[in-house]
Design goal:
By secondary structure, this protein is an alpha+beta fold. The protein has 6 helices and 10 strands; from the N terminus they run E-E-E-E-H-E-E-H-E-H-E-H-H-E-E-H.
Length: 233
C-alpha cells in the first residue's frame, strides 16, 4: 500500500519571519507577492515544501533565495492550519523566524522579490494570516531573549553597549536604566571590550565590544542574566 486510503491530501508550506536591526529600530523584511491570489500585496517570504525536503531544509532554502544567506539563526515558531487561511487550496504553513544583521547583508537581498525592510511600528497590511505570524514571532523572540542571548545575532561584529541597550528596548518596547543594564550585560562575561571607540554620537565616545563566540556557544542554553525583569534592578 503506497497511500493511506480515504485520506485528504494537504499542501505544506513554510513562511519566514525575518527580523533585522539597523542600530535604531527592529525591522521586518517583506516582499511583494508575485502571484495570485493577493498578487502585488505585502507578504512574508514563503514557499511549499519540496518532496525530498525536511521543514528545516525548506525554510533554509527560502531564506537563501531571498537574502543569499545560509547558516542564519532560525527557529521554528508554530504551525498555522486554519482551513480557510489560503483561499486556493488547503495549505498548512509551518512558520520560522530568523535573525540577521541588516548592514552585513543588505546588499545580498534578491531583487527578484522586491524586498523591503519595515519598522515593526509601521508594518503594512499583510496577506492571509501573516500578521498573526509576525505578532507571535515578536512574542516568541521576547520569551527567547529573556533566557538566551539570541539578540546578539542581530548585531554586527563590533557594537557599543548603548546599541545593545537600544536593541533590547526595541524588542521589549520599554526603557531600561542605563547603568544597571550595562552592569548586567558585562556581568554575563560574553562581551570582550576593544580599544576602539564610536565617536559619531558623542565627543567622549563609547567603546566597541565584540561577542566572545566560544562563551556564546557554550553558555547559550544556560544564559539567564539578561531577563527583562531584572534589567532595571
Amino acid at each position: 500500500m503506497n497511500r493511506y486510503d480515504k485520506q485528504i491530501r494537504h499542501l505544506v508550506a513554510v513562511d519566514c519571519i525575518i527580523f533585522g536591526f539597523d542600530g535604531e529600530e527592529l525591522k521586518l523584511l517583506l516582499i511583494h507577492r508575485g502571484f495570485e491570489p493577493e498578487r502585488g500585496k505585502w507578504s512574508l517570504m514563503g514557499g511549499f515544501v519540496g518532496e525530498a525536503e525536511s521543514l528545516e531544509m525548506a525554510a533554509a532554502r527560502i531564506l537563501k533565495q531571498l537574502t543569499g544567506l545560509s547558516g542564519v539563526y532560525m527557529d521554528q515558531l508554530n504551525v498555522f492550519g486554519d482551513p480557510r487561511r489560503d483561499p486556493v487550496e488547503r495549505t498548512i504553513s509551518v512558520a520560522y523566524y530568523a535573525l540577521i544583521d541588516i548592514h552585513k547583508y543588505e546588499k545580498q537581498l534578491s531583487d527578484d522579490f522586491h524586498p523591503e525592510w519595515f519598522s515593526l511600528k509601521q508594518v503594512p497590511k499583510l496577506i492571509f494570516d501573516h500578521q498573526q505570524m509576525v505578532d507571535m514571532a515578536k512574542s516568541k523572540l521576547r520569551d527567547k531573549a529573556s533566557v538566551q542571548p539570541v539578540l546578539f545575532e542581530l548585531l554586527p561584529e563590533k557594537f557599543t553597549l548603548p546599541i545593545v541597550q537600544n536593541l533590547y528596548e526595541c524588542v521589549y518596547e520599554k526603557e531600561f536604566d542605563k547603568r544597571n543594564f550595562s552592569r548586567k550585560v558585562l556581568a554575563s562575561g560574553l562581551l570582550v571590550k576593544t580599544q576602539a571607540k564610536e565617536r559619531a554620537s558623542s565627543k567622549k565616545g563609547a567603546f566597541y565590544h565584540r561577542l566572545d563566540k566560544r562563551k556564546y556557544r557554550t553558555q547559550f542554553q544556560s544564559f539567564l542574566n539578561l531577563k527583562p525583569s531584572i534589567l532595571n534592578q
